[in-house]
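dumping this here before i forget
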Amino acid sequence: MTEPTSAPVDRLAPARRPAGRPVGYQQWRHLTFLHWRVPPEQVRSKLPRGMELDTFDGSAWIGLVPFLMDGVRPRWAPAVPGVSRFPETNVRTYVTRVNGEGEWEPGVYFFSLDAAKWPAVLIARTVWSLPYFRATMSVDRDGDRALYRSRRLWPGPRGAGGRIEVTAAGPPAPALPGTLDHFLAERYLLFTSARGAILRGQVHHTPYPLRSAQADQLDDSLVAAAGFAGLSGSEETTGRPPDHVCFSEGVDVEIFQLRRG
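structure:
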């Protein structure tokens, strides 16, 4: 596999709003970013052909990101009460891919995305070719504390999920380019694989207002279900504390058309 050494990865270009109209809108609220540092070889073999692992300080990173989706709607329709608001949790890593101009673009690769609404799961699996799972989930806030609960329903492994409680501290601020915060949070491209082809999706939003945070409770089996045992822990598996945790109140997001990457 080709390594992205001949040209640097432009980590600022994807944050610029692409030309054209978005296909939809979303609001991402009450996000916690929990990350574990892992050896690159532990992740690289799990990526589809055509994607290269993106590393920071020589390490790959596995992320667990629970949050609340709100105001989810296509461009041509309003948000629907009871349908457009639901919790979501994703397990992810970071990759790069060469675009049509020969430039290396940084993006997210999702191992799983659990959501609490059937329509969101079915649309994302069929239209976006993303590995969505149906789950029962909740997000609760009490001042600086956030509590996330989830339990996977379909497809298996049924029961994967858990309980995550975090406390945020300090004032919010955007991440500075070149920092680990920026590397982990400021991602505007996603890459997925469908029928042997790489698909590229782009979003646009203002930079995340990030706060430092700590995990007060981390009972999770979604990371292990994605193939990374020994990171987050649960009643069934032993884990270790995350290497990085931060929190954001959220951003308003424009969603652009998925296309061949």
